[in-house]
Specification:
This protein is mainly alpha-helical and 62 residues long. Helix content is 63%, strand content 10%. It has one domain (3-61). The protein is built from one helix and two strands, in the order αββ. The longest helix has 39 residues, at 2-40.
Length: 62
C-alpha cells in the first residue's frame, strides 16, 4: 500500500506544479497585455491642447 501512496502523491505533486506553471504563464501574459495597452495610448505630446476662442469664448483644440 505505501508504494501506491507515494505514486499517488507524486502524481498530485506533478499536477500541482503543472497547474502553477500554467497559471503563472497566464498571469504574465495578462500583465504583458496590460503594459502594451499603456504604451498604445496617445502620449501627452500627441493630445491637442485647448485654446479659448476669442469670439465665442468656447475652448477648441488648436
Amino acid at each position: 500500500m505505501p508504494p501506491l501512496l507515494v505514486l499517488a502523491g507524486s502524481l498530485v505533486g506533478i499536477a500541482l506544479v503543472r497547474w502553477a506553471f500554467r497559471t503563472a504563464g497566464r498571469i504574465n501574459q495578462e500583465l504583458d497585455d496590460a503594459r502594451s495597452a499603456i504604451f498604445a495610448e496617445p502620449q501627452p505630446a500627441e493630445i491637442p491642447t485647448l485654446r479659448k476662442d476669442p469670439v465665442t469664448g468656447a475652448y477648441r483644440p488648436g
